[in-house]
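Page 37, continued from 36.
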C-alpha cells in the first residue's frame, strides 16, 4: 500500500503523529523533468513535508511550500489541497552535483503559504540555515507555534523513486513530564531507518518503535499527484492577455504554445482553436 497518510495518537502522552508514503506521487512529480538527482531528492522531501503539514492544519483550501535561494536550485515548490492532491516543480540554474542541502539552495528561505477557501491568507517564512529541510521545519514549529515537533523525511531516487516521512507533534500542555515524554518518543522516532519506513506497514513500524506504549492509528487518507492545468485554464489565461500580444504571437508563430512547469504538459492553440472560443473572438476576426 502506497501513497497514504495515516495519523496516530498515543494514549498516554500528549502527542500526535503522522506517517506518510508517496512513492507513486513522487515518481509522477519527477517523471518528465530530468532534474538532477540532488533536486529530485529535495522535491521528494518537499512533497512529504507538504503532505505532513497539510494534515496539521484544519482548513479547506491550499498549502504551498516554496524554497527560494541564490544557489543552483533557485526554486522548488510543492502545493497541496485539503484532499492531499499535490503537484510540484523546481527551477535549476547551474551544477548541482553532489551538493549538500545548504549549498544547493545557497542563501535562501522556505515560504509556507496557506490559502483558505474562506478567510485571510497566511504566510510564514523559515530561514534555511539548518542542515536539512526537516530540521528547518522543526525549528519553524518551535518558533512560530511553540510546538515541539519531530520530522523525518526520506527520499530515494535510484531504481524506483521512493518518498516517506513521519511527524510527531506535542499537543499544547505544560509540565516537565510532558517534555520528557516527548523527548522519549521523538528519540525513538529518530531511530527509524530508511529501509524500515519503505518496507514495513505503519502498524509494524509503530510496533517496532513503541511496543511498550499504546498507539492508536486512524484511517489512512489517500495522496494523489494531480496537476490543475487544463486546456480550459490556458484559455482563461489567454483571455487576460492583451489583444496586441495575442495577435503578435499568432502572426509570428501561427499558434500559441503553452507549457505547464508543474507536469510538463504542452498545449497548442491555433487561430482556429482560439476562434472557436468566446475569448479573443474579436482578435481572431482581425487576423482573418
Ligand atoms: Zn500541469
Amino acid at each position: 500500500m502506497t501513497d497514504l497518510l495515516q495519523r496516530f495518537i498515543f494514549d498516554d502522552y500528549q502527542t500526535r503523529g503522522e506517517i506518510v508514503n508517496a512513492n507513486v506521487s513522487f515518481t509522477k512529480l519527477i517523471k518528465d523533468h530530468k532534474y538532477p538527482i540532488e533536486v529530485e531528492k529535495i522535491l521528494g522531501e518537499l512533497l512529504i513535508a507538504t503532505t505532513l503539514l497539510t494534515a496539521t492544519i484544519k482548513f479547506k483550501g491550499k498549502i504551498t511550500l516554496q524554497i527560494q535561494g541564490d544557489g543552483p536550485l533557485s526554486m522548488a515548490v510543492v502545493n497541496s489541497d485539503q484532499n492531499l492532491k499535490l503537484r510540484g516543480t523546481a527551477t535549476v540554474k547551474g551544477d548541482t552535483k553532489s551538493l549538500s542541502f545548504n549549498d544547493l539552495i545557497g542563501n535562501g528561505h522556505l515560504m509556507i503559504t496557506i490559502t483558505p477557501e474562506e478567510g485571510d491568507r497566511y504566510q510564514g517564512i523559515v530561514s534555511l540555515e539548518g542542515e536539512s529541510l526537516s530540521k528547518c521545519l522543526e525549528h519553524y514549529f518551535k518558533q512560530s507555534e511553540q510546538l515541539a515537533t519531530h520530522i523525518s523525511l526520506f527520499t530515494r531516487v535510484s531504481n524506483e523513486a521512493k518518498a516517506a516521512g513521519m511527524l510527531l507533534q506535542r499537543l499544547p500542555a505544560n509540565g516537565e513530564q510532558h517534555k520528557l515524554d516527548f523527548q522519549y518518543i521523538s528519540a525513538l522516532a529518530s531511530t527509524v531507518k530508511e529501509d524500515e519506513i519503505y518496507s514495513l506497514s505503519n502498524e509494524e513500524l509503530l510496533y517496532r518503535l513503541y511496543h511498550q506504549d499504546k498507539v492508536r492509528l486512524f484511517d489512512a487518507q489517500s495522496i494523489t499527484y494531480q496537476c490543475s492545468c487544463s486546456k480550459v485554464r490556458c484559455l482563461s489565461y489567454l483571455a487576460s492577455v492583451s489583444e496586441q500580444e495575442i495577435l503578435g504571437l499568432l502572426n509570428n508563430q501561427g499558434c500559441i504554445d503553452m507549457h505547464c512547469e508543474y507536469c510538463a504538459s504542452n498545449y497548442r492553440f491555433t487561430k482556429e482553436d482560439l476562434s472557436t472560443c468566446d475569448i479573443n473572438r474579436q482578435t481572431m476576426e482581425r487576423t482573418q
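The domain at 4-225 is CATH 3.55.30.10 (Hsp33 domain). Flag for discussion at group meeting. The chain has two domains: 4-225, 231-287.
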